[in-house]
Amino acid sequence: MGFKLLAVIILMIHTPNLYGRDLKKSAEYRSEKSWVFLWRAPTLTVVDTGYGTGETGFGIESVTSEQVSLFLNVQGGYAGNIGTFAGSGNAGRITAGYKRFFGNSFYLAPGIGVRHLSVGAVERRENKEYRSYDELYSNVEVYRNRATSVGANLGAGWQWQRNKVTIGLEVTTLFLPMANLYTKHSATDESYEQESKSDAKNLGLLFDSSIPRFVLGFAF
Known about the structure:
Helix content is 14%, strand content 61%. Residues 9-14 and 16-23 have low confidence and may be disordered. It has helices at residues 2-13, 26-31, 193-204, and strands spanning 35-47, 51-63, 68-80, 88-102, 106-126, 137-162, 165-187, 208-210, 213-219.
């Protein structure tokens, strides 16, 4: 995973401008602005073993120079099948840090983030009282886990500025949790009490990475 990410970053640094001359002065436009407001399109965040969340959000950036911006992002959405968990729930996160631009548009965005996950574990059970074949089995939530964790955040992508319009492609954002700030488990089935307690701690410490998404905004 680390080698693939490094290869992608090196490729992006050496990739020519996607829009040619039209956005040649993107860095100059950016240096003339003080604030950038962004809408970050929905993306799938793959958590640990291939399950994940669907999140969208907003961001604000303070432009300090042609090559550096400070940022604050807030996003949230749906969570399901995270790691060894099943069922549905919700996800949310707040990240802050700075964007370091290399050349005209490519950037790396290191920072720190806080992520919250709430996921239910379900079990397929037979209904004792059913009226049709479709009602023979149903999914029953046996426990729900909640975890809030803090960790390191790293984003990479391109961002272009044309007058007041901002267009971007966020290639990926990685979140590496360092510690749990809060965990809670609630089992509706007592036989799952210990499993729920253990999984709640593990939930907050799952690594995640997002797939590419578009970013659109304006600056002034």
